[in-house]
Amino acid sequence: MSEGFVSRGFRGRRKPGDERGRIPPGQYLERGFPVLSAGPTPHMPLATWDFSLLGEVDQPKQWTWDAFRALPHEMVTKDIHCVTKWSKLDTHWEGVSVETLLEQVAYDAKYVIAFSDGGYTTNLPLEDVLGGKAWVVDAYEGQPLPPEHGGPARLLVPHLYFWKSAKWVRGLRLVAQDEPGFWESLGYHNHGDPWKEERYRGD
């Protein structure tokens, strides 16, 4: 895969007013891109970075940075929604679909646990990461993904609240039984659908 990136605006601009109906309940439109993290920002050298598929798989799979970059990449334009109540529209990413990654192994699982540098984890049903719903992205707005936004690579699951889009992701562990991740174990909702306002346990 070429290291070149598509420039900002490759999908065109929406007309003013198109945001109506695209902001979930309780959210407000954010023009910037706030940086929110539970801890310090890791800085992983690309020479030692890798991404793994583990757990209920026939054989664990691992990619170096160069091998990951050589996988088929897609350009993705999506709205994103943070549990802190901001929404950002028409964000542009580039990355590898989770479906493409999981095609590399045979597995017997119903859930994935994304794990990241710094010890962060988040849990997702397989149905929320397959079918063009989730990617491991390494570029944002035509540039390599910066560390403060999860670079060199982060999970992108735009139909759920953004804490599910784990920053600094290093792999997926496939499991038969659901396991709460970092924020889920601290009282956040286990699923996180912004259109249902699934912010906290009990919502």
Secondary structure layout:
Layout: E1 28-29, E2 50-55, E3 61-64, H1 65-69, E4 74-81, E5 86-97, H2 98-102, E6 111-116, E7 121-125, E8 135-140, E9 143-144, E10 154-156, E11 169-175
Parallel strand pairs: 1-5, 2-11
Antiparallel strand pairs: 2-3, 4-5, 5-8, 6-7, 6-11, 8-9, 8-10
What's the overall average pLDDT, rounded?
90
Number of helices: 2
Give helix and strand order, one letter per element, not per position: EEEHEEHEEEEEE
Number of strands: 11
Q: Which strand-content bin applies to the residues? A: 25-35%
Write down the Rg: 16 Å
Give the low-pLDDT segments: 1-16
Structural class: mainly beta
Sheet having the most strands: 6 strands, mixed
Question: N-to-C terminal Cα separation, in Å?
Answer: 43 Å
Instruction: Report the principal-axis shape.
Output: globular
Oligomeric state of this protein: single chain
Could you estimate the helical fraction of the residues in percent?
under 10%
Properties at a glance:
203 residues, mainly beta, 6-stranded mixed β-sheet, 5-stranded mixed β-sheet, 2 helices, 30% strand
Structure summary:
This protein has 203 residues and is mainly beta.
Word description of this protein:
It holds the Pfam family Oxidored_molyb. InterPro entries: OxRdtase_Mopterin-bd_dom, OxRdtase_Mopterin-bd_sf. With 203 residues, the chain is mainly β. It has 2 helices and 11 strands, in the order E-E-E-H-E-E-H-E-E-E-E-E-E. The strands form 2 sheets. Strands 1, 4, 5, 8, 9 and 10 form a 6-stranded mixed β-sheet that branches. It has a 5-stranded mixed β-sheet with strand order 3-2-11-6-7. The longest helix has 5 residues.
